[in-house]
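Table 4 source record.
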Amino acid sequence: MKKVNKRIESRVRRHLRIRRKIRGTADRPRMSVCCTGKHIYIQFIDDVAGRTLASASTLSAEFKSGDANKANLPGAARLGKIAAERALKADVKTVVFDRGGFPYHGRVRAIGDAARECGLEF
């Protein structure tokens, strides 16, 4: 149990350290990624105005209708494409990637790569 708590505390500390450095603006919003055991959430946030410009998650109907409808690696790549399409629809072309304290590996990396393929610039 201590090992799990230590891992969560380390992630939260990393996330706070990253958030001190990263700010999203209207021109270049922050692409925030949060991964849990069951779901993945992505938001495009303008920190200056305090608004969410676009979002996507594994709970959305658009995501659930496809083949890769789980929070695994193929599902994360599919969710990254959906999120990038929604961001481009909201006129967001460049973003600051906020991995939320998670290592840039696995699902987080799949989201980033898929978003880049769809035309978002980091």
